[in-house]
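Hi team,

Below is the intake form for Serine decarboxylase from Glycine max. Please confirm the fields before the structure is written into the shared record.

FORM ID: S-0412
PROTEIN: Serine decarboxylase
ORGANISM: Glycine max
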Amino acid sequence: MVIISDDCYPTNQDFDYDALAPLLHFHLNNVGDPFTESSFSLNSSKFEVCVLDWFANLWEIDKGEYWGYVTTGGTEGNLHGILTGREQFPDGILYTSQDSHYSIFKAARMYRMQCVTVGTLVSGEIDCVDLKALLLAHKDKPAIINLNIGTTMKGAIDDIDLVVQTLEGSGFSCDQFYIHCDGALFGMMMPFLIQAPKVTFKKPIGSITISGHKFLGCPFPCGVLITRLEYINTLAKNVEYIASRDVTITGSRRGHAPIFLWYALKERGSVGLQNEVQKCIISARYLQHRLREAKIGAMLNEFSNTVVFERPQDDDFARKWSLACKKNIAHGVVMQHVTVEMLDSFVNEFIQERQIWFQDDGKRNPLCLANDIGVGNCACILHE
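The structure came back. Fields below:
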């Protein structure tokens, strides 16, 4: 049984969609623009628009001012968001932090865009000092910025307001930049955390995407992409064959996904979603506390349910607990289905196995992680 979901699939496994099982007897295809009728009548476009309206309200953009669709997941949302920015600025440069999801760099390769990698702080957040230096070095071209609402490895949240200030301070006006927000996991969670910074279209952002199979627990990969309606005409092309507009990445799309997402949102409601967010945050803090108590270096960013810690020495152990690892660190994404008992079991086994690893390797002290997670989070002999 998977206890802590890994990075690529930090999925919520606490769900029950039995009520929707009869729909699997039907082929549902949401081809084309969800806001335009198509020639294939067996679709769920009305449910899709309801889901999009819900997210548009969440991210504060009025109906009639936004466009969006239900995607196959966060990667497709990123591909569409970056493409939308590229269509606004064909000669624009893509800026993204070194901690960004691999799909951003994939988008740059696919679209043959110049991509500039920006450094990050120890938290994983984009370094705006480095960003400003890079922007000033390329002032002759528009900026297409990817921001992470929760980075892949550390769960760091890029500061939208500070990035906008950096752009303006570097001489870029609003008509010279486009901001895409990759909110795969946290884009769904942050609106329900009172003290968290707002992700909203009231700020000068161009698009946001989230994954529906992560926090919402859809049983198959899917996602949501919202952008400004004004940007879409440059992408859209009428296709007579489908009697709709071709404006998505994939064309034909899974018609079941919008219904499952709609069901998930309606079943939980805003109060239920907020309670689930709080549960994940509290459980993540508990995991960090248990690790630090065991003298294992661990970091937890504010508003995050991603706990970063010392990388296990045994790959089998990492696979058993579905831990994503990178260089000296690993992480656990604490989702709704994770209980205190599961966390205790993980930490206790980690402690036991760790004693064996250090003994076998002749190590007496844990590795220094100060450069990876900060001096205050390191548990090595120098920093504990």
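SUMMARY LINE: The chain has two domains: 19-268, 269-377.

Thanks, M.
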